Amino acid sequence: MNCWSKATHLSFSLLLSTNIMRLLNTKTLQLEEFLTDIPKYAILSHTWGKEEVTFQDIQNLKVAKRKAGFHKIYKACQHARNYGFEWIWIDSCCINKESSAELSEAINSMYQYYEDSEVCYAYLCDTTRDEDPDPRFTKLCLQECRWFKRGWTLQELLAPSYVVFLDRNWKEIGTRWSLRDTVSSITSIPPRVFEEGGSIETFSIAQRMSWAAIRETTRPEDQAYCLMGLFGVSMSPIYGEGSAKAFMRLQQEIIKISDDRSIFAWRALSSDVGISESIWDSESAYSFANNGLHIRLPLLPTESEPRYNNRIFIASLHCRSDRDGRHFSVYLKKTVGRQFVRCRPDELALDYFSPALKHLHEVIVKETPPSRHMTKKKPPGFLPDTGVFHIIRPSDAKITVLQPCIGKGWAVFNQKTGRLEVGSLEVSVTAMKCRVEDTGEVFVVIIGYDVLHNIPRFKVVTGDNLPETPADLDVIWPAVESEPHRDRAQEPLASGGTISLAIQMTGKSSRNHRILEIDYITAPDPNCRALTKYMGPPIGANLDTALEVKLPKHFDKQGIFNPRYVDDLQSTPEA
């Protein structure tokens, strides 16, 4: 998400906020407001360009279609609709940014919007999917993308449970999980964040702040505002206050809910600062007052001056480096009495020795007044006892299911519709034996569904030792279950080519519904590690009655939008 279009100062109108969420209908392109019972929705993450379609524009499609950004809106709706989503949230047109109260509410709710979405489509408008199997080329393809350099897109990368990257032609590049190593090298975010489904609570405040160090925002205040969701705090945006004041307010809000002292290392390069250790019990508490930060810290004078004339002290935060275990300290300058100010803010002192409690002092740290120029944790609700997968095989893949549902537990497969249901009280494991018609080679797709955590897992098995019985699956499954969450998998075949599997989210009302795409990729290199063919549901594929994908008349057979039909969208809903 990009910076807001105009500076906005809030007033008491913020109190009149109504907590309304608007969603865009992917068929009619009409907005609808939801107060409760918000339906399943996809969400778009993008960088803003010229002539974005605003909330006011979308009210009249005759106006909206004249803007360059309309094509992006329509393609996002089309992509979401192909996977059964009736609703999508797009920041440019779903927020009335002329209302200061609504703008403030949206900024404070943004992380939650992305966290609650079923899938986030990250549209990278300045790159094209690289067909080269070497992952190094995939990194080159992505690292110059503007999306990875913007402030707001940081939370849009971390908050959703499922992120799919799309190139400028709306073709899939990969997912946050399948590209986790590449995304980690670009963003400096540890890959385990992506392996654990975006869990960031185990990382220190300083580490999370460091992830935004290289990112830019158009408005300086947004450098602080775009981080609110990462720390679970809220505050009123005040455009015009400057980045330093905005960051000071952000720190104060974080301190109200956290005793992690690594927050005071945020100005330094602090990507490896661990969470502070609470060894002082009640003595470790700190708070803000009108005269500054009240805190107890171990203080030691620096060695550069005589002990009694020294006014520069090292104050330990009792945070350790995740890299080598050394302790972090900051520099404080004594002004008068117990009052100090932060100095040398871009430096941290490192020491292997733990600070002694006998050096604890109660101090007041006052910030230098800046110059004006300066969690997805959805409620679990009802847990179904089945996982539903629609097995999609593109017509040119020529894959035949020979024997479905080899496994233990309960499983039903409908060969005609491709619907597979697996279920048990805990984890159900089944397998499908398939054959590539071109080569005759047989492979097995193992599918498991963790009902308790609503996580599907799967694996492709090739070679001579294919599982034939539930007992065979018992041997293979523990290795599959112990792996991080997976949404993409590939396995080379001995006869050449590659079997690719992809889990796709859908707009089905059931929370346990997924699409499992199975594709056969012809490749000269049997060790191909990169996706070289777009895996998408065939246009018009009948997944079942509820997920039947139909091309509206506004598109031609290739899925290209025909603008001459846009006038009909306001009055004629699609079938």
UniProtKB/TrEMBL annotation:
Protein origin, superkingdom: Eukaryota
Coiled-coil stretches: none
Pfam family, one: HET
InterPro entries: HET
Residues covered by the Heterokaryon incompatibility domain: 41-132
Keyword DNA damage: no
Keywords: Signal
Cleaved signal peptide residues: 1-26
Protein's name in the database: Heterokaryon incompatibility domain-containing protein
